[in-house]
Design brief:
CATH topology of the largest domain: Rossmann fold
CATH superfamily of the largest domain: Response regulator
Structural class: alpha/beta
Oligomer: single chain
Helix content: 25-40%
CATH class of the largest domain: Alpha Beta
Number of helices: 13
Number of strands: 12
Largest sheet: 7 strands, mixed
Shape: elongated
């Protein structure tokens, strides 16, 4: 057993008890799940995968007992994912769980037979060619997927409640996820929002932390009135303090998709309840292990959403949050 597999088993030890509602599983086979992510995976951090582990337990799957997890990642670089995916295929895993768009694409390039369950950052799975339709995916891919276009439009509407008349929005895009001219994970959503709301999108590409000030300089030149992020990446998440500082200097509100961004100093976050989505991704795994074909399992969409507002940041950048917006927030950071 290699080091990462050993760590994953140890990390999951705390989750061994089976819930009372769990169904008995066959003892003859121990299933292997490959976990593929662009960013490094820390199996010892339950927050990353807690919902998935919970969903498995609710269906009677216990890590180290009747299922094992194999973790592979691209170290934050998309070009390394294909090799990571091929490692999982070589291990003969029974199923691959892929976090986001670049992970799913790498997994599909590595195998067309092993079932692939999409995680919580799958963008537009139909537009990206991962599934034929949400209702009938076809092929070897299914899972969960937020409604990208609707979420992006909703974030623009939230920004407009703060800055009425907003027409230009910058998108801080980490090139680790792919070329900025493609932006495949979210382009359909941006285009739909542009048509419906009359906004212009200005990609602000970054590759390393030193690119962040340059991105804000470009935002000033293009006279954008607010910012948002492309797909969640290690670069963005580990440089929130710097991004927040630059946003305060330029008085730019930023809306992101995850609560961790608002907690890290970004003005707002709006997106699906990721814990709930991970639970439901685990339910897909359960159905496949019980004999269902991934191509026959409809892609599930989120039903729970969260709005987080950071009032400290609002004060720092000089924007007033309408009371009606505060009342709709699930969490307000003072």
């Amino acid at each position: 057993m290699d080091r990462r597999s050993f760590i994953s088993v140890l990390a999951a030890g705390a989750f061994a008890p089976i819930s009372l509602g769990a169904r008995a599983q066959p003892e003859a086979k121990v299933y292997r799940i490959g976990c593929l992510s662009l960013n490094p995976i820390d199996p010892s951090s339950p927050g990353i995968f807690e919902g998935f582990l919970r969903g498995l337990r609710e269906r009677g799957w216990v890590v180290g007992h009747n299922v094992t997890l194999e973790y592979r990642d691209g170290g934050g670089r998309a070009e390394r994912l294909r090799e990571a995916a091929e490692e999982l295929v070589a291990l003969n895993v029974d199923l691959i769980v892929a976090w986001g768009v670049v992970d799913i694409r790498a997994a599909m390039q590595a195998t067309r037979t092993i079932p692939i369950v999409m995680g919580v950052h799958s963008g537009d799975p139909v537009g990206s060619g991962f599934v034929a339709s949400l209702a009938r995916p076809g092929g070897n891919v299914t899972g969960v997927s937020p409604v990208a276009s609707e979420l992006i439009s909703k974030r623009v509407e939230l920004l407009r409640e703060i800055r009425p008349g907003l027409t230009g929005i910058g998108v801080i895009w980490d090139l680790a996820t792919g070329p900025v001219d493609r932006m495949e994970a979210v382009r359909p959503g941006y285009d739909a929002a542009a048509r419906a709301l009359g906004v212009r999108w200005h990609p602000l590409p970054v590759r390393v932390p030193d690119d962040l000030p340059k991105a804000f300089e470009a935002a000033r030149r293009q006279q954008v009135g607010a910012l948002t992020f492309g797909p969640d990446t290690q670069l963005l998440r580990t440089n929130l303090a710097k991004i927040s500082e630059l946003a305060v200097m330029d008085r730019l509100p930023i809306v992101a998709d995850r609560d961790v961004y608002a907690e890290g100093g970004i003005l707002m976050a709006y997106g699906p309840d990721l814990h709930d989505l991970w639970v439901r991704a685990a339910y897909h795994v359960d159905k496949i292990f019980r004999g269902a074909k991934p191509g026959d399992l409809p892609v599930e969409q989120p039903t729970k959403f969260e709005l987080v507002i950071n009032l400290k940041t609002a004060k720092a950048i000089g924007v007033a949050i309408p009371q009606s917006l505060l009342q709709r927030a699930d969490e307000v950071i003072q």
